[in-house]
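User: I've been trying to design a sequence by hand for this structure and keep getting stuck. Would you show me what you'd pick, starting by listing the structure so we're on the same page?

Assistant: Good idea, let's start from the same input. This is the structure you sent:
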């Protein structure tokens, strides 16, 4: 091989292309090995956290709020209103809401269940 070999603390780095630019990632750290170890630990913790989130999302994806027809819910961000559940659509995970005391029609509103509280 035409590359060169460089030793640093406890590992050997074989550079296949010595003309390529290499810059140590933890070059300015007081203890580069400790900084690298901490970065690996943080990465592993984040990977586990994201796996837990993905598993929870897969499990919760089939859950619904279980709101019955006629249940009253708060709907809206800035000026929440009390609305009534008219129906639930399992195909797309939405609730059909209507204003309390109103009949379904122009006052009906279809919303995703994550907008209902």
């Amino acid at each position: 091989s035409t590359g060169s070999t460089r030793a640093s603390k406890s590992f050997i780095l074989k550079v296949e292309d010595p003309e390529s630019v290499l810059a140590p990632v933890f070059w300015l750290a007081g203890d580069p090995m400790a900084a690298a170890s901490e970065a690996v630990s943080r990465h592993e913790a984040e990977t586990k956290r994201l796996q837990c989130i993905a598993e929870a999302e897969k499990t919760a994806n089939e859950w619904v709020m279980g709101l019955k027809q006629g249940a009253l819910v708060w709907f809206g961000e800035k000026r929440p209103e009390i609305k009534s559940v008219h129906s639930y659509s399992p195909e797309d995970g939405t609730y059909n809401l209507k204003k309390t005391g109103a009949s379904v029609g122009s006052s009906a509103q279809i919303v995703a269940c994550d907008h209902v509280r």
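That's my pick for every position. To get oriented when you compare it with your attempt: The longest strand covers residues 81-89. The two ends are 65 Å apart (CA to CA).
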